[in-house]
Amino acid sequence: MSLKKPGLWFGLIALGALALNLWLRLTPFDFVWDGRVPWERLSLAPLTLRDVPLNVLLFVPLGFGLAGIVTADGRPPTAANKASLSGGGRWSAVGGLLAISLLLSAALEAAQLFLPARAPSVADVVANGLGALLGVGLYRAWAMGVGRALRRYATGRNLMLGLGIYSLGVALLTGYLYRSVRLSNWDTSFPLVVGNEAVGRRQWSGQVEWMSFTWPNNDSMTMYGEYQFDGEAPFEFLTALETTLPPLNWREGPMTAQDGNGVTIGPGEWLATETGFSSFSAAAREANGFSITVSAATADPAQRGPARIVSISADAERRNVTLGQEKDALIIRLRTLAGGENGQKPELLVPGVFADGRSRLITVTYDAPILWVTVDEEEYALSLAPGAAFFPGFANENRWPVVMGGNPRRYDYAYAGIVVGLAVLLFGGLVVARRLVGDEKD
Prior knowledge:
By secondary structure, the protein is of the alpha+beta class. Helix content is 38%, strand content 21%. The chain has helices at 6-26, 51-70, 82-85, 87-112, 122-144, 146-153, 156-179, 278-287, 387-390, 410-437, and strands at 192-194, 206-217, 221-228, 237-238, 248-252, 263-265, 270-273, 289-298, 307-313, 319-326, 329-334, 347-350, 360-367, 370-375, 378-383, 401-403. Strand 3 (221-228) and strand 4 (237-238) form a beta hairpin.
């Protein structure tokens, strides 16, 4: 068989693309079968936003190669194959190629159900289908000639239609990003812990004088209550409203003598509720907002971990919200769909808060998508969507530290710049290319 035959090259392109997809999607081929199909592992959304363009690109050469094979063995249009490249024959071929690509992608995602290291997603199948269509379109442009394809398809009407589809896609993505910073994945079983994690792995040393919690209730009332660390434990949640939260008691310790004016916390001593901090977590999850205020002073400006001052969490990896210390900085971790179970995308830093041992009054308020932090009289804010929820989706790291300060919408502006810039490059480039090829008749 000679490589000079055009159809063979398209076959090699399609086989190469298939082999690449099999390798990237199924390695290390450690399939696990426990007697059932684990449908619960299948998700609608992609694991990360980075997966979307990658899955589109992976199927472009496959669509290109299959189009070359199906459409008259890759030869330019002739009387014998004209029907397959135009009119109903062309659309029939495109539909068939799309069906083949979607079935192949669905098979790959189904195989990933049995690979514990993989995350199968319906979004991956859709992205693969778009990639295959793009590949078919590129083949079509190649077969016709780029100039002829531009004159035929880069018309004003088609460009406006494409811009409309692009705008719809951007609107859907932006809506998804806003939804991803809601508190819908908060776990109401997590206890409130002061000075550590519930499992005792992130000790903080210092003094907590008092702290309060505020949250919306039924859109008509703001709930408020506080813990005043006077006297001996257990410390009751003080509120004038009907809703109460569980008392705080020593989980370990106290090892240090307490003077009744706040609590002193150090190695081997911390406070926690015996039950979940459920009322607060459930209300915050429903309203996508809350406020926590704590008056605290560090005993060591070099504490790391981050060392937990106040945390609603199960252990060192799962939390709803944490206020902690990382060296001299206040660090905030907030659980959202975008931020993950450990709230690290992003984790928010306010430097210099614990540079000395003086008491600081810290308030953290969240009203999705804006997070406000007040340290004494200094105020900071950051919008968590759409920009801050968009960029971590393209990074491999589990952590994305962001220093509070500056324009609170700086990541939103960067996101808007990318969206608008991409539209200008894509559609503006097509307009310029269309003008360069002129209006010569086919």
